[in-house]
Amino acid sequence: MFEALAVPAINRLLRGNTWALEKLQAHAGKTALLTSAAFELRLAVSDTGELRAASPEAAPDVTIAASPGVVLRVLARDEAAWTAARVSGDMEFAGTIDHLRRNLVWDYEEDLSHVLGDIGAHRLGRAVRELDRWGRAAVRNLGHAFAEYSTYEQPMLASARAVDRFVSEVDALRDQLARVEKRIELLERGEPGREP
After folding, report:
1. Do strands 40-45 and 51-53 pair parallel, antiparallel, or not at all (unpaired)?
2. At 88, is the secondary structure helix, strand, or coil?
3. pLDDT tier, 93 (very low <50, low <70, confident <90, very high otherwise)
């Protein structure tokens, strides 16, 4: 079901990036299974490099499983998100999928220009880029504010300085304990006057 929505959009994106079709042609006939709690997407690569919905019985050559949070991070182009996905099967095919994920570019202004005209598409594109920049900055600032709040205002996390101080105090306590143990050992041997 999800394939009916995803395949045309992905193929349109691939046709706009002909190099991507060429990379996928090397994997013609292979099937990829992308799974998440929210969906399961089973796609097969055609001889032209475009994708088509694969049969539900088709054994996948590569399986990529990710939590919904990881899927959102991938869509937001978070480079670290891919490492959180569980990948099994044909690693060369998985590498091609990852390369496409990182390098495919949707020229949405070009697509919008057919509907809105060149000027309207450019203005909307500029607004989208500005909104994206604002959103990324807002997420980054919110993350910093939460980290600062969690560290200083409502201490759920320790600051680096507090951790260093704690480690120093533990080291000093360990050294004092070692001296006390040595003193006890000397007392047990009957050598009370010697300092360790």
Report:
1. antiparallel
2. strand
3. very high
What 3-state DSSP class applies to 89?
Answer: strand
CA 106-112-113 angle, 5° bins = 115
One DSSP character per residue, 16-64 reads: TSHHHHHHHHTTTT-EEEEE-SS-EEEEEE-TTS-EEEPPTTSPPSEEE
Check pLDDT > 80 for residue 5.
no
Q: How confident is the model at residue 154 (pLDDT cuts 50, 70, 90)?
A: low
pTM over 0.85: no
Cβ-based burial of 14 (10 A; exposed 0-12, middle 13-18, buried ≥19):
buried
Q: How far apart are CA 150 and CA 104, in angstroms?
A: 38
DSSP tag of 157: S
